[in-house]
Amino acid sequence: MIPNFRIETNGRDLTEAVRSRLLKLTVKDEASWKSDAMTLELIDDGIEWPKAGQEFSVALGYDNVLTSVGRFATKHVGVAMDGKRIVKIEAAAMEQSSSLKSQREQSWDGTTLGAIAEEIVRRNQLKPAIFDELKSIAIEHEDQTESDLAFLCRLGRRHDLTVKVSGRYLMLTPADKSGANPDGTIPVIRIEKPIRFEYSGDQTQRYTGVRAYWYDNEAGEKRYVMYGKDGVVLELEYNKITEVGARKAAEAKFREVVRKGKTLTLTVPGNVQLAAERKIDVRGLGPGIDSEWVIKSVEHSIDGAGFQSNLECSIDGSRDELSKL
Q: Cα–chain-centroid distance for residue 226?
């Protein structure tokens, strides 16, 4: 199979013009609210530089089987000399709704996560892709003083869910179902022989539980709930309004610290099916590494060395230590 790509702008196919000058094409897919990006490094032999905001559509793959990896708008153009003159074009993923990142002030009372998401989807002219189990999460009171996207990400951290804007869709997904299809199925890609890998496991701060506080109005005193076990316990400094809210916060935080305890980077043959939030099943790398991992970011690159995908992963927080509770 021969690595291949396609680049178009304003209805024009630039693929062959780019191919003859290409040093490196990189597309990075980030998790959650972070913007995806594209970088082109070309031999500058008098080619016309793109204008600010000029749009590019990019597809990657092998032979004639290519998959779209996004639309990008030019943000920065630079030039350097390293034996030959090189132009570097940096572009960010097209924002479907600038209002999604605009500052807002709003109070939400006696509602649900589903209702909040539906309202944010409506006013930002997006389409919802929300797991049913998330829609009924009760939100007693929240003061929004940030953008819609930042607000949803804050709720996401509290309830252990991921927030992603892709195309025209706003997606809310339970963290333990990262990368799931709309029908709820969770595709898992198996990786056995990476080109290279690096693993890091935090052995110094293995939390066994999280304690979150709430205020009991009837008793007139502060109480707490614990998720996990006694031992090395992480305490949440802020108070929750109810016992249920505190329990959910403790569970979400424990899942977060489990995922942060282990990291894995992998370089594998180029595969556009590898994307942020997708799950991979790693085998053959040894105890503590062989497990299901969640891709936090992936960088696809095509250059003189071929087509490779570089992955940054965290442990699947729904498994591992969580399965021992």
A: 28
180-197 burial code (b ≥16 CB/10 A, e <16): beeeeeeeebebeebeeb
pTM for this model (two decimals): 0.72
Distance CA 15, CA 5 (A): 7
Residue-wise pLDDT tens digits, 175-202: 766 666 555 566 789 999 999 999 987 6
Q: How far is CA 190 from CA 46, 66, 279, 289, in A?
A: 44, 21, 9, 13
Q: Rounded CA gap, 140 and 252, in Å?
A: 18
Residues 6+ apart with CB under 8 A from 115: none
Q: Which stretch of DSSP H or E encloses residue 159? A: helix 148-159
What would the pLDDT profile of 161-173 be if each residue is shown by its tens digit? Answer: 888 776 677 888 8
Question: Which tokens go with 82?
Answer: 């390293």
